Amino acid sequence: MRFLPSGDSALVVEFGDTIDAEVSARVTRLAGRIAACAIPGVRELLPTFRSLMVFYDPLLIGQGELMAAIAPLAADSVAAAAPGRLWTIPVCYAPEQAPDLTAVAEATGLGTDEVVRRHAGITYHVYMLGFLPGYPYLGDVDAALRLPRRTTPRTRLPAGSVAIAMAMTAIYPVESPGGWHLIGNTPVKLFDLAADPPALLAPGDRVRFRPIPQAEWQAIAAAVAAERFRLDPEPLP
Amino acid sequence: MSTLLVHRPGLSTTVQDRGRFGLQRFGVPTSGALDPESYALANALAGNPPDAAALEIRLAGPALEVEAESAIVALVGGDTPLAIGGPAPRTVPPGRSVRVVTGDVIEVAGLRASSTAYLAVRGGIDVPAVLGSRSTFLRGPFGGLEGRALRSGDRVPLANASAPDAPERALPTGTLPKRPDTLHVVLGPQADLFTQEAIETFLAATYTVTHEADRMGIRLEGERLTHAGGFDIVSDGIAPGAIQVPGSGQPIVLLADRQTTGGYPKIATVISADIGGAGRLGPGDRVRFSALDVATAEQRARAHHRALKAALARIAQATVGMIDEAALYSENLIHAGPFE
């Protein structure tokens, strides 16, 4: 673990420089402990793949004092924070919802059914949210499905797009530009201004995908639009 | 409802307040005023609490017709005056409040000595708070007026239908924030991913702000900075004022609407006291970087806060017989925000 200053009002607590579930778990655990301690002057915590960014008010606490408060919490002998939640998110992998599925099947040498089977066969870890409000970075993707980003990003792709690139899979919460490979779509809202918190997922959660046919996608989409759909997570053991 | 009718929207005029806090872990940037000092001063001149929603104006300003019985407005943005058109045309010098009435047209032309200005209206801009803030986040899109910049024909809702016939307020001389020629930084968090030569170049060279300058950040052009290894890192958090350097070797200063996370090395971070200065920069401006240690940056944060508080207190004291605004402004102005 090392401290890296990012100016005089943010401090990075870095645990590694790779995408690694254990590094990520240490980040999430530290975030939980700092939140529980309510250190005066700490304003906001931002967990990422490999580090925790701690935003603080330099008028209330100095960086030296902040590091002294955090250092004992970063030791992994301290009891872990509460575990995350397990979400099962319905995804339609039908061709009309998956513009890149055929290309991914060709690039990987797997059939489209096998791509879907492998993508939906893993319980993913939510490493972090970023890029856009509610945008989750989920990993790790099956080794056979790892492809670089598309050489030409799309300027617009639909909300709910389920995408892969390298070892990550993600869901675009809103219509957005994007360079990942689109292999499915979920009707579930990943970001909802009316919800508290507004993002469905949080760092440390687990996610699995449940393949659904187009008819079920439409039924859920209609229920979401009518505000009659709610997805509940299961607690993690 | 009392409104400002948009005759001309300006280049990019958005509703902003202090920002949206506590949601960066969900990928929601803070947004809020790019230049917190000018924003706070404009609100004080208009007789507002320090967190009232105001219009943020970039480069070229709007023309707005007053559709309220009366209103007190104030513009703070470099040396830019306010022109009042309509039945009684007049010019208001920079850093003054003015009382306007129905039919007056508030006009802000090209900004001078800053790329960012704030038009505060007594009572504030009355848009609904979204996730705890009235700030516009254009890529959301949410907050402000439908999550977007003003357009011709919009009606900007005002909280107050009329304003008292109060004396004009003026900023103490010498307190108008201007565009800086130097931004102070703390090196890091990833200064070690650059060559020693790149760090020296970064601190010696003069950079020019390109036309790619908006609320997300300002892209600079100048001497190329060389990474010691690759320029793709595993994404981590981005603080306000972080200066990231992509493969082009040209630095980008990230501002209020920045992505919360990113995968380019960040050579340095602008200190909190100079964030407003970074927000005042625009295309064609030239800027240098000067490195400080964290302890000095913290001293500057305190000095900056004291100076702003003093300026605000003097504005408030200049007006007699109104609410106890000195007490209002004695709270922590620039850095306050919900804790978690």
TrEMBL record, chain A:
- On whether Hydrolase is a keyword of this UniProt record, the answer is yes
Q: EC number(s) of the enzyme?
A: 3.5.2.9
Q: Which Gene3D superfamilies match?
A: 3.30.1360.40, Cyclophilin-like
Q: Which enzyme class?
A: hydrolase
UniProt GO MF annotations: 5-oxoprolinase (ATP-hydrolyzing) activity; ATP binding
Q: Does the keyword Nucleotide-binding apply?
A: yes
Q: Which UniProt keywords apply?
A: ATP-binding, Hydrolase, Nucleotide-binding
UniProt xrefs under SMART domains = AHS1
One Pfam family of this protein, by short name?
CT_C_D
Residue ranges of domain Carboxyltransferase in the record:
1-201
In terms of NCBIfam families, this protein maps to: 5-oxoprolinase subunit PxpB
Name of the protein in question: 5-oxoprolinase subunit PxpB
Its lineage reads: Bacteria, Pseudomonadati, Pseudomonadota, Alphaproteobacteria, Hyphomicrobiales
UniProtKB/TrEMBL annotation, chain B:
Q: What one GO molecular function would you report for this record?
A: transferase activity
InterPro entries referenced in this protein's UniProt entry, alphabetically = CT_A_B (IPR003778), Cyclophilin-like_dom_sf (IPR029000), PxpC (IPR052708)
Q: Which UniProt keywords apply?
A: ATP-binding, Hydrolase, Nucleotide-binding, Transferase
Q: Which residues form the Carboxyltransferase domain?
A: 25-307
Q: Which SUPFAM superfamilies match?
A: Cyclophilin-like
NCBIfam families this protein is in? urea_amlyse_rel
Q: What is the name of this protein?
A: Biotin-dependent carboxyltransferase family protein
